[in-house]
Amino acid sequence: MSTRPEAVPARAGQPQPLPESADVYRTLLESTRAIPWKIDWASMRFAYIGPQIETLLGWSQDSWQTVDDWVSRMHPEDRDAVVGFCVSQSQAGVDHEADYRALTRDGGYVWIRDVVHVVRDASGEVDSLVGFMFDISERKQAEEERMRLHRELEQLSLTDGLTGIANRRMFDQRLETEWSASRRSGSPLSLVVLDLDHFKQFNDAHGHVAGDDCLRRVAALLRGVAQRPRDVVARFGGEEFILLLPDTDAAAALALARQCMERLAALGIPHGAPEAGPVVTASLGVGTATVASTGEASDFVAAVDARLYAAKRGGRNRIEVLAD
């Protein structure tokens, strides 16, 4: 009677162990779209890189000799950050991944994701790095398109659809930012609030198409008055506009308000309603604040807006200034 154990047949569907052949593993690695590679840590030389690299980037397999070849074929804008990150993570023995643009032989760039595994020797020291390069260009293009659309939607959400200037939401955001900046620096912050006189009657007399055109022309006029990078020209609602003027003292704010009136008069937009004069005019409120720690931006806006309505009560086509 034999004492030798009988071989147990594998059950259907049970995974079989791979034969221990380097050729099998190489075939598996080189049949994927991912590009395998290995770098010897001591010499910083490529021990291996898959032949797929030539299909992807155009550089021949044997041209990848050292890490310098990897570094030199990276986009200059990505190079310092990616190399620094990968070196520090490798030195610490931490597996990691990095995205960067790799130079193709014909001068283009391909987005790569490098997934890196740190191999240690018996003493725990770093022996080598092994990993895979993945072409993620399509994914990056999709991400960039999503970001572009997001930026466009964000911009639309902050822009008045009729006039193209900032809307109330944008004004409120910038007001909070500039209010905080003024509080820190002690610099003055000014507002000019402008409302077109008898605008309902203008629409009644000329129609809403002409009314919309009038609002667009006034918005363009105001952009020409307040044109520093931090200035904000916003449609505050209806026929009311507001100028947010950082680092602007009371005298300069009043001068800008007068420019608004002069340029509006120069436009000469016919009005003709019985209650109004021959051309479209506006009433303005002006105020300047040196922000205190206890002040609220909304209170300042309300105070300047009140001066606008004082100008309305005082006869229109005039400026009222908020007292210090």
How would you characterize the overall build of this protein?
This protein has helices at residues 22-30, 52-57, 67-72, 76-91, 137-157, 168-185, 199-206, 208-225, 250-267, 297-313, and strands at 35-40, 45-49, 96-103, 109-120, 126-135, 189-196, 232-237, 240-246, 282-289, 319-321. The protein has 324 residues and is an alpha+beta fold. The chain folds into two domains: 22-140, 2-Layer Sandwich (Beta-Lactamase), CATH 3.30.450; 158-321, Alpha-Beta Plaits (2-Layer Sandwich). A hairpin with a 5-residue loop joins strand 3 (96-103) and strand 4 (109-120). Helix 7 packs across helix 8 and helix 8 runs antiparallel to helix 9. The radius of gyration is 34 Å and the shape is elongated. InterPro entries: Diguanylate_Cyclase, GGDEF_dom, Nucleotide_cyclase, PAC, PAS, PAS-assoc_C, PAS-like_dom_sf, PAS_fold_3.
β-strand number: 10
Arithmetic mean pLDDT: 89
Structural class: alpha+beta
CATH T-level fold name of the largest domain: Alpha-Beta Plaits
Summarize the structure in short.
The protein is of the alpha+beta class.
List the helices and strands and how they pair.
Blueprint (H helix, E strand, L loop, with lengths): L21 H9 L4 E6 L4 E5 L2 H6 L9 H6 L3 H16 L4 E8 L5 E12 L5 E10 L1 H21 L10 H18 L3 E8 L2 H8 L1 H18 L6 E6 L2 E7 L3 H18 L14 E8 L7 H17 L5 E3 L3
Parallel strand pairs: 9-10
Antiparallel strand pairs: 1-2, 1-5, 3-4, 4-5, 6-8, 6-9, 7-8
